[in-house]
Structure to design on (734 residues):
């Protein structure tokens, strides 16, 4: 169909002598090519943003945490990250800090600092680990999305929809996915979840860092032009932010649009399991499935008895309001 | 001179003692042991893992097999990609990990909540097994002379005196049967072709100190984890479905039982206490020789026989007291009053079974076991006919 249109366009162009710009969506590429295209665009944009700081300028970053009060770091603008600041303090800070609080704003550990500021590190064991927990849940959902994208055979198409912001207390992180229409009747069995979990554990073991990039909406739209759900989300986010900037995160080969900071590396996850898949109501495009999983970081390892209870609890459908259950107090206090 | 033959376990311990990095302490030793046991095909991969080398230089603990007690299988597999299959010694983990106890990362409310929920779950599991006769029991066969039935696991409570009608005073040990369930059945084909095995567990235990593999057996039976499991050789007509509770009324007053338990450990003891040697006199010129073994052999043999009685570790071994008479059974608290003494300390778990002695043959016992939800309702106390009843009238005037 697209080919016929293209042919008509070319014929008309030859006739009138002017060039036609193709207005149809791009012909479907294979998933490997899409991934490659996205990574190339990501790298290009990253290099372009790095080239904005040709000469190294210094910024002063003041540490306002409890452990080394009054420390002043002299870091490079646009190059140094909060992780580099932590490297100046100690290995403990590097291993334990999950997010950085830069001028009161939550930052990824690997996001370059752009001006002189005050910095503080957040770990899982703080009094108020709410932001850290949310970031962890987001990262786990992104890992699951990457696994889902790669897990199916090439003849089945997988469209990632979104990662709903589910409260941590509900017991599971989730990702909405639209699978190929041929898989509408497929009910994932126990061994399907086991193989998804194994793939996720492989990713965790690879210890991939989460890279962040702030891009303009049109670059992001070009990267995700094959996925219309993502394009809707990009447009929505661009309209919400004042400068029309969309945040992209990448680990390994997988790029995704997310709305908040992530943990620094995939190896921060320790126990990880994909537990359930529920069917949400079928929209006109296809059946939206919600894949759920549960995970715990290495700093908060759980005994197998407790882990099993958490697994059972995560099999229930979670929604954005959060499902209340008997293990509420447990999970909330646990992540604290 | 070659040192005398040592078992592989002892050889390992001397290696531990003489490791190359004593300044690292016991953690360094764990490191070095893990380093040495890596199979040859994986050594290159191991050396290439910069993270692991950094761990060694810093002298951190390498995660041992104990860590994996709390880790689900997939994460462990991910961490162990580099290592060989046999090497539970060489699981290498990149992070600075140490083994943790179950409530390290939990808050106080969580700990209380988990304890409460565990005990509730145990009660629910026990309650679900209270009616074995209604729950598709395995076929019940009548008792035949020569058939062996299952035994129980009990808790040694203590001892008390008991008087017979003829006025003799005997001492009895109280053994309480707490949460005794049948856990597993192994048919005779898998055992030795002649007798089947029944695994019985006694006294509920906390799930937080047992590994995942051990919990599997209990989950299949649907019972809480137990503190002690023992096997009973059973004849084919006495097999019971796993999950069935066992009670003290399984035994009858007047029958004889054998009780097996671990004796009280006395530590390293000399030859007089351990083997009952006479020792030497206290005076009359004995120089520093009062409790010594003396000669260890004859001159002709010119060696010491293997197995010679010498000082060593005494106690903490399984011993059986045979042919103990059951005087009384309390069905309310599930207590068996057994004659004489029983090996083990107070509150230790003992294995009780019908006596194998030829003089004490059973006659018509509850077969295969006593079911509490059957038709018969037993009185609270069952006495042997010889036991003196204090509540009986002492003098009757005609």
């Amino acid at each position: 169909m697209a080919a016929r249109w293209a042919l008509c366009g070319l014929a008309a162009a030859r006739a009138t002598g002017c060039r036609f710009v193709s207005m149809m969506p791009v012909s479907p590429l294979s998933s490997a090519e899409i991934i490659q295209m996205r990574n190339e665009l990501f790298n290009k944009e990253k290099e372009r943003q790095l080239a904005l700081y040709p000469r190294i300028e210094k910024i002063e970053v003041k540490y306002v945490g409890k452990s080394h009060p009054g420390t002043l770091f002299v870091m490079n603008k646009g190059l140094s990250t909060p992780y580099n600041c932590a490297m100046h303090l100690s290995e403990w800070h590097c291993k334990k800090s999950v997010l950085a609080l830069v001028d009161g704003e939550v930052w990824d550990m690997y996001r370059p600092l752009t001006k002189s500021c005050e910095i503080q590190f957040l770990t899982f064991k703080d009094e108020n680990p709410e932001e850290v927990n949310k970031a962890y849940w987001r990262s786990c959902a992104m890992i699951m999305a990457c696994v889902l994208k790669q897990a199916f055979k090439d003849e089945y198409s997988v469209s990632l929809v979104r990662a709903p912001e589910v409260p941590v207390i509900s017991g599971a992180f989730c990702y909405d996915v639209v699978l190929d229409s041929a898989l509408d009747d497929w009910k994932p069995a126990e061994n399907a979840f086991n193989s998804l979990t194994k793939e996720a554990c492989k990713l965790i073991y690879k210890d991939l860092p989460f890279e962040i990039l702030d891009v303009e909406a049109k670059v992001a739209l070009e990267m995700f032009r094959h996925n219309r759900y993502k394009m809707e989300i990009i447009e929505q986010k661009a309209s919400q932010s004042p400068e029309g900037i969309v945040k992209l995160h990448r680990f390994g080969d997988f790029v995704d649009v997310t709305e908040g900071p992530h943990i620094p590396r995939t190896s921060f996850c320790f126990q990880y399991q994909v537990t359930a898949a529920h069917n949400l109501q079928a929209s006109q495009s296809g059946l939206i499935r919600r894949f759920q999983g549960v995970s715990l970081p290495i700093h908060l390892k759980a005994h197998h008895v407790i882990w099993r209870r958490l697994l059972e609890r995560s099999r229930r459908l979670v929604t954005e309001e959060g499902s209340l259950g008997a293990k509420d107090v447990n999970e909330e206090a646990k992540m604290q | 001179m070659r040192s005398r033959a040592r078992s592989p376990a002892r050889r390992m311990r001397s290696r531990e003692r003489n490791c190359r990095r004593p300044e690292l302490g016991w953690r360094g030793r764990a490191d070095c042991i893990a380093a040495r046991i890596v199979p040859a095909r994986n050594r290159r991969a191991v050396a290439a893992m910069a993270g692991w080398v950094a761990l060694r230089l810093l002298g951190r603990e390498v995660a041992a097999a104990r860590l994996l007690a709390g880790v689900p299988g997939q994460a462990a597999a991910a961490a162990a990609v580099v290592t060989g299959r046999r090497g539970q010694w060489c699981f290498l983990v990149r992070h600075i990990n140490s083994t943790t106890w179950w409530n390290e990362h939990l808050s106080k409310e969580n700990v209380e909540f988990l304890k409460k929920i565990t005990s509730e779950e145990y009660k629910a599991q026990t309650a679900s097994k209270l009616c074995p006769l209604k729950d598709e029991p395995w076929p019940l066969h009548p008792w035949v002379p020569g058939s062996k039935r299952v035994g129980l696991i009990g808790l040694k409570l203590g001892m008390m005196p008991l008087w017979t009608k003829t006025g003799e005073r005997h001492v009895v040990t109280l053994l309480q049967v707490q949460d005794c369930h049948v856990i597993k059945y192994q048919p005779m084909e898998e055992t030795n072709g002649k007798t089947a095995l029944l695994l019985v567990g006694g006294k509920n235990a906390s799930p937080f100190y047992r590994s995942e593999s051990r919990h599997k057996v209990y989950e299949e039976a649907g019972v809480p984890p137990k503190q002690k499991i023992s096997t009973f050789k059973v004849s084919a007509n006495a097999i019971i479905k796993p999950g069935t509770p066992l009670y003290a009324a399984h035994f009858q007053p007047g029958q004889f039982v054998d009780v097996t338990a671990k004796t009280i450990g006395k530590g390293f003891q000399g030859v007089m206490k351990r083997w009952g040697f006479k020792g030497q006199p206290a005076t009359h010129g004995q120089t520093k020789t009062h409790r010594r073994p003396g000669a260890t052999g004859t001159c002709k043999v010119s060696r010491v026989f293997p197995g010679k009685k010498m000082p060593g570790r005494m106690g903490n071994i399984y011993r059986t007291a045979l042919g103990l008479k059951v005087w009384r059974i309390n069905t309310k608290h599930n207590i068996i009053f057994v004659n004489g003494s029983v090996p083990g300390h107070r509150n230790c778990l003992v294995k009780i079974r019908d006596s194998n002695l030829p003089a004490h043959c059973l006659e018509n016992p509850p077969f295969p076991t006593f079911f509490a939800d059957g038709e018969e309702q037993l009185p609270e106390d069952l006495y042997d006919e010889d036991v003196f009843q204090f509540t009986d009238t002492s003098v009757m005037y005609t």
About this structure: The radius of gyration of chain A is 22 Å. The longest strand of chain A covers residues 269-279.
